Amino acid sequence: MPQTLPAIDQAAPATAPPAPPTALSLEERLVFISAAMSVRLDEAKVAYEVNTAHIETEPVDLADVVTVPLTPTLQPPQSYPTPVAALLQRAHHRLLTGGWCKDVLVDEDGARCMLGAIRIEARGDGGLEASAATVLLDAIRRKFGDGVDSVPSFNDAHGSGRVPMRMLDQAAGLADARGL
């Protein structure tokens, strides 16, 4: 006679089902990502060392490389010998050290526009100031065309002092070349 096996109860599970995974918080995800990046960076470091081990190098003495001050000195350069060129050069240096502004001759922080820098450096000499402004306007028109009406309008058309300061420097060279 065939032997019958006992029936297995299929309805009752032997173990409880696993709980659904909970979402990780931002901090937990960042910790995991940081750990993964650390592993990748360590692997890259080892790979770099292996790939460059055959290259012979000599230690570099920074005293041999760095021969100038690390921070630029804002001392005025050697002055031009002509008065208008020297005035424009001083005005350029004033904008470099004191700051540039627009829409006013001098702002509340003491920064100056191009004409304000020329005026303070002219030290009350109206003729010298007018000559410097004329040369500056000529230099501006050479570079940007005849559509520029005046030095103040050119100054105020810019969002930073980079171009106005460069034009003052170029005007100083132009004045020197003209013997002014």
Describe this protein's structure.
The protein has 180 residues and is an all-alpha fold. The protein has a domain at 83-178. It has 7 helices and no strands. The chain has helices at 26-52, 62-65, 83-98, 114-122, 126-144, 151-156, 162-178. Helix 3 (83-98) crosses helix 4, helix 3 (83-98) packs across helix 5 (126-144) and helix 4 packs antiparallel against helix 5. It is elongated, with a radius of gyration of 36 Å.
Throw out a few tags for this protein.
180 residues, mainly alpha, 54% helix, elongated
User: What's the number of helices?
Assistant: 7
What share of the residues lie within helices? 40-55%
- Mind describing the biggest β-sheet? none
Mean pLDDT: 84
Determine the N-to-C terminus distance.
Answer: 130 Å
What is the helix/strand order? HHHHHHH
Strand content: under 5%
